[in-house]
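job 3f2a | input accepted
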Amino acid sequence: MRIEISHRRAISLFVSIFTMLILLGCASSPTVSEKLDPNTGVTVTYSATPLVLYRDNPSQAAYARSYVHLGPIQVNRIGSYRYYLWLGIWNTMQVADISEHRDGFESIIIFADGEPLTLELAGWTPASIGASEPTYLKPVAATADAYYEVTADQIRLIADARDIRVQATGTSPREFLLWDEQISARNSLTEFLNRAFY
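job 3f2a | predicted structure (198 res):
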């Protein structure tokens, strides 16, 4: 009888430890990623979950919507650090030419709790940041990538802001609003700051 109780306790303990390890594994999934570019040799650090902003386009269709995904990037070239914001620009309507997504994004204004940050486009390809391959996965195949050079202070300002908006400039300015709370994206951005600057 004692052996049976002891055996049950051992199984129960094993199941508890196994469950705890699984939960710890899920909880500790990385919020920041880092990779070595195979062709240029730079080390690229980025948040695992970008922020998502949106804009409704009811004039195009009932449920038409445009999106901007926003994520920070640190590029380390042998101890020389540069910082960028990646924007993944796309919409729910089929677009024949990806350049339609790019319209107005040569210069953008990011409002972080009302504080305007005017950013100029560094380029449309990873080469503009010294990389040979994209850092973030495109949400859809027709996503336009845009890269903007920023300072550490600008990334901190965005990370600390409760309200973030992106305004595309050009002939028809469009404003994109933050989609919901995005706890995981905000946590990822905070962890990026901790990893990149401390």
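job 3f2a | The longest strand covers residues 65-77.
job 3f2a | closed
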